[in-house]
Structure formats: C-alpha cells, structure tokens
Amino acid sequence: MKYPLPASGGNAAIKRKFEETLKSKNPIAQTNELLAKIVVYNLTVIIHEMYENGVEPDFLNLKSGPCTQSATLGEV
Known about the structure:
66% helix, 3 helices, mainly alpha
C-alpha cells in the first residue's frame, strides 16, 4: 500500500490527544471508553472550528431556540 488509509489519521489524532491505551479491562468497557474518546475528540474539533475559523454549527436545524423545538417534538 502506497498511502495510509484515511481513518489512520483520525486514529493517530485521537491517540495523540487522549493517550494510546485504554484504561478499562472489560471488553465492553473498552468499547465504551473508545466511543467516548471519539465523541470528545469530535467535540474538540467542532469547538476549535468555531473559535479559529468562525464556523457556526447548526445542530438539529433549530430556527427559534430549544424551548420551541422541544414543545413541537412533544406534539408529534
């Protein structure tokens, strides 16, 4: 293989930021720990983009705020 797979870059970034090893011993706990690291890494990337590049994420496509959105969800 001439070039590394694209996922290897993400794996390396997570390892650099949150250590290479998992602390949990149980396989299910290891899976949960790894998934938590991925979620936290993605949040740090979003926050970085917000502050460094002025990106404004639009979660759930909320138009008028979370209070009105939750009220409409209950009516569905």
